[in-house]
Write a structure and sequence with these properties.
The complex is a heterodimer. By secondary structure, chain A is α+β, with helices and mostly antiparallel strands. Chain A has a single domain, classed as OB fold (Dihydrolipoamide Acetyltransferase, E2P), CATH 2.40.50.100. Chain A contains five helices and nine strands, in the order βββαβββββααβαα. In chain A, the strands form two sheets. In chain A, strands 1-2-3-9-8-5 form a six-stranded antiparallel β-sheet. In chain A, strand 1 and strand 2 form a beta hairpin. The longest helix of chain A is centred in the last third of the chain and has 8 residues. The radius of gyration of chain A is 13 Å and the shape is globular. Chain B is an alpha+beta fold. Chain B folds into three domains: 134 residues, Gyrase A, domain 2 (2-Layer Sandwich); 74 residues, Alpha-Beta Plaits (2-Layer Sandwich); 115 residues, Beta Barrel (Elongation Factor Tu (Ef-tu), domain 3), CATH 2.40.30. In chain B, the strands form five sheets. A six-stranded mixed β-sheet of chain B has the order 11-12-13-10-4-14, sandwiched between helices. Chain B has a six-stranded antiparallel β-barrel with strand order 15-18-17-16-19-20. Chain B has a five-stranded antiparallel β-sheet with strand order 6-7-8-5-9, covered by helices on one side. The longest helix of chain B has 14 residues. The radius of gyration of chain B is 21 Å and the shape is globular. Chain B starts with a strand and ends in an 8-residue tail after the last strand. The relative contact order of chain B is 0.15. The chains are: A alpha+beta, B alpha+beta. Chains A and B meet through strand 6 of A and helix 2 and helix 7 of B.
Chain lengths: 127, 369
């Protein structure tokens, strides 16, 4: 059973977005996603300043066996990237909602509100 | 309807993530593929490989059947009961039907272990060859048996201790012994020392539990794949299939043409291929930046396509991308090819497999690579 914090909102492509206030949102992949991907060995997040379109590919996550696309859960602009993932991609597995965050995005609150709540996401993750 | 090994419930109890592999429910990984990989490289780990199928072959003409059906020559096993041989089984054109290990059990008795996906068809193929020649051979499928592979530098000593079988300490490589209902071969698919234990399904859950209690952790198919690829070993269905010969699959060493009177399946195709000269080859590639993946195209220095990646991973032991690739013509180790990863060309150093042997890399990157 995967961990799905109530305080976050979720995309159907298995990313979470946390409201940091002032139109800033921290983004990462869910516990369910990291479990499916297996041990991650490489993460490539979009450059700071890049414009993201929700639902489109914005980076890549690679495990030993496979490369998976990283999708933008929300439309906005990249403000910050988690540089710790360069040397320690395993943080995505060990702490997907904490030290394994991927980026901070500037976005409209309405875009965040359109994402799923934990209850709705749980139905997708457990399907 | 997917099949389950005798350890299905045991795997679930260990928290394994199960996947369908060739029609079997198999553990992909338990807690971490990387940890499982590391344990096998540094001490020991064990795999349920009961999806692989033992087939017993006995009778007056068993040797004749195997000398005809296999590209390697089981005559090498004569007078060496217990000895094993790796071989491919070929179509008439030299394309690979399957790869397998054959064990000689003395007298006119052999045991082969087949890949899960091909086991049924392989058995039918062998039966057909036997019938065509009116050979006296009995093929016996062994659904009552399963297989545990215990692999790693400490594996053999630990199993010898656990099963009270000191003879394992002196067991030669590619040799098996049979004792107390266990058929134990010093074989494997990880590039490490170790054993593969064939035993009655009813014995396996207790054996798995004893291994675990002795501190040997289970490892899944994911770690098995990264270990075999570091060891430069082909995976049937991925690095080879019926469209390619052993020469095109880095398996020329398993073809035995020495006895010119031995008319084995595929011989004519292989001899024609040798007469034509250069053909496709399977080589290793290593990338200092980027991870090669199945299907990536390789280009030569001039930018012309010259091959395709058949298996690619991030190597946990080497901490870089490695792969096997089929190139259209031979290329020497040390050459540098290119592959595009998400639109960016990366150098790919050609390496003669294996990539990893006895605790160390077999190659190093140069400035250009």
């Amino acid at each position: 059973m995967s961990n799905i914090p109530q305080s976050l909102r979720y995309s159907d492509t298995h990313e979470w977005a946390e409201d940091l206030g002032n139109g800033r949102y921290r983004v990462g992949i869910t516990d369910h996603a990291q479990a499916l991907l297996g041990d991650l060995v490489y993460a490539e997040a979009p450059e700071v300043g890049k414009d993201l379109q929700a639902g489109t590919v914005c980076g890549v996550l690679e495990s030993v066996k496979a490369a998976a696309d990283l999708y933008a859960p929300i439309t906005g602009k990249v403000l910050e990237r988690n540089e710790a993932l360069n040397d320690s991609p395993q943080l995505l597995n060990e702490d997907p909602y904490g030290k394994g965050w991927i980026m901070v995005v500037a976005a409209e609150p309405s875009a965040h509100a359109e994402l799923m709540d934990a209850t709705a996401y749980a139905k997708i993750a457990e399907a | 309807m997917t099949k389950q090994t005798a350890l299905y419930d045991w795997h679930l109890a260990q928290g394994a993530r199960m996947v369908d592999f060739a029609g079997w429910q198999m553990p992909l990984q338990y807690a971490s593929q990387l940890a499982e990989h590391k344990a096998v490289r540094e001490s020991a780990g064990f795999f349920d490989v009961s999806h692989m199928r033992p087939l017993d072959i006995a009778g007056k003409d068993a040797r004749s059947l195997l000398r005809h059906a296999l590209a390697n020559d089981v005559a090498k096993l004569d007078a060496h009961p217990g000895k094993a041989l790796y071989s491919t089984m070929l179509q008439t054109d030299g394309g690979i039907i399957d790869d397998l290990i054959v064990y000689y059990r003395g007298g006119d008795s052999y045991r082969i272990v087949l890949n899960a996906a091909g086991a049924e068809a392989d058995t039918a193929h062998l039966q057909k060859l036997s019938d065509q020649h009116a050979w006296q051979v009995t093929l016996t499928k062994r659904p009552d048996l399963g297989i545990l592979a215990v692999q790693g530098p400490e594996a053999r000593a630990r199993v010898a201790d656990l099963l009270q079988m000191p003879a394992l300490e002196s067991l030669k490589t590619f040799t098996a012994l049979e004792q107390d209902g266990f058929f134990i071969g010093r074989t494997g698919y990880t590039g490490e020392d170790g054993v593969e234990i064939i035993a009655a399904n009813t014995l396996l859950p207790e054996l798995a539990q004893r291994l675990l209690t002795a501190g040997i952790a289970p490892a899944g198919l994911a770690a098995r794949d990264s270990l075999r690829l570091e060891a430069g070993l082909d995976l049937y269905g991925q690095d080879m299939d019926t469209s390619v010969s052993p020469y095109a699959s880095n398996l020329g060493w398993t073809v035995d043409l020495r006895d010119s009177d031995r008319d084995f399946m595929g011989r004519a195709g292989l001899e024609a291929e040798l007469a034509r000269g250069d053909g496709p080859r399977l080589v290793g590639i290593a990338l200092s930046a980027g991870i090669p993946r199945h299907g990536y195209v390789l280009e030569d220095a001039a930018g012309a396509p010259c091959g395709v990646v058949t298996s690619g991973i991030f190597s946990p032991s080497l901490q870089c991308g490695i792969g096997l690739a089929r190139v259209t013509a031979p290329v020497v180790a040390g050459s540098i090819l290119q592959t595009a990863i998400r639109g960016v060309r990366k150098p790919a150093l050609v390496v003669k497999p294996p990539f990893w042997r006895q605790g160390a890399a077999t190659f190093s990157f140069t400035e250009e690579s």
